[in-house]
Amino acid sequence: MSTSSLQGDAPHSARPAERTDGDAPAPERRPRCAMIVNPYSSGMTGKRERAIVETLREQVDLDISRTERGGHAPKLAREILDAGQHDVIIACGGDGTVNEVLNGMALGAETADRRPRVAILPAGGTNVVARSIGFTNHPVKAAREVADAIVARRSRTINLATVDERTFLFSAGVGLDAEVVKRMEERRSGRRPSDAAHFASILGIYATSRFALADRMTIRIDATEEELRSALLIVGNMTPMTYLGRMPMHFLPDCRLESGMDLLAPHRANALFSIRNAAQAMGVGRSSQRLVSPEKGQVRHDVAGFTVTCDEPQPVQVDGEYIGDRTHITFGLLERAVDLVA
Q1: Among 102, 113, 192, 340, which residue carries the largest CB count within 10 Å?
Q2: pLDDT tens per residue across span 244-264
Q3: Taking the mean position of all CA atoms in its chain, how far away is CA 333?
Q4: For domain 166-335, is the CATH number 2.60.200.40?
Q5: 177 vs 229, more confident
Q6: How many whole angstroms separate alpha carbon 265 and alpha carbon 242?
Q7: Closest CA to 119 of 140, 100, 138, 143
């Protein structure tokens, strides 16, 4: 942790104010940024980190912190907030690093104006969020774009979603997709498993279930009190939700960071359903002739909150990270939670 920027007792509930001299206009000053780097991200090397730092420091004042283990980034984010001296927190790593940084920022509804802006430098295996908001999928090349956006103050005030105690930015799931994430984490050693490994895991799950998943959870929508029986649950806060190589996957194409959550909760699912749904997410099938209809998928749009009660404990994933098997799960929405540099 660079300590030169973490002195003082300014409250973390406010961004640092620009200094003024009487009635004179405030002098131009460079944005002050704190970058949290995950040096273990699959796209990060020492050489790349040095290039990123050099590029950013051409336009911003930069302090650097490095994670030492999984779960360290929230602590670093809290320390930066407590110092109260930075305009922007930059998360440099994969989607998991971004999620950890956000979870360390004590975000809630209407906190966007009382927290530093957040920028993302893609250095992971998939980099869903950075690519979705328009940045190049390469950390060094993206550093210039991020610096330009910070200086120009280009950002979006966005909503975040929650799963119990965790905040998430782009996706969460209960059941099938979370089981895949769980299995990938159990066998992972170093780099992110390939897309082929993910598909093989899905087929393996179906094979052990006689290629069909029956309903196993009840979803209750808060606003309408509607109840759905479902075999699995996919929740999105933005689109695309992932990438197949360079191809974006739009499982819930209508969800936006500025609106509520969208969810896909089919009553029953089999291997053919997953194949058709994946093909549709890649753009196969006209909107007037969907491969998986919203009715069959039990799609719900712009939802602010709901609860899930599982017949037996089901795996849960948040932004691609397995967080355990649970029976009762609560989803919520944090409106205008953060300003995201875009």
Answers
A1: 102
A2: 888 999 999 999 999 999 999
A3: 14
A4: yes
A5: 229
A6: 18
A7: 143
* DSSP code string of 324-341: EEEEEEEEEEEEEEEEEE
Tens of pLDDT, residue by residue over 28-59, are 789 999 999 999 998 999 999 999 999 999 99
CA dist 106 and 12 (Å) reads: 10
Enclosing H/E stretch for 118: strand 117-122
Of 268, 291, 293, 269, the residue nearest 280 (C-alpha): 291
CA distance 255 to 170: 10
pLDDT exceeds 60 at position 11:
no
H runs (alpha helix) in the chain: 46-56, 73-83, 95-103, 128-132, 139-152, 176-187, 195-208, 271-281, 294-297
Residue ranges, CATH 2.60.200.40, the chain: 166-335
pTM: 0.86
In CATH, the architecture of 32-153 is: 3-Layer(aba) Sandwich (3.40)
Pairing of strands 269-270, 227-230: unpaired
**Nearest Cα residue to 2 out of 87, 47, 61:** 61
287-321 pLDDT, tens digit per residue, is: 555 788 888 899 999 999 999 999 999 999 999 99
Boundaries of CATH 3.40.50.10330 in the chain?
Answer: 32-153
For residues 229 and 312, give the distance between their C-alpha atoms in angstroms, rounded to a whole number: 14
Across 12-28, average pLDDT: 52
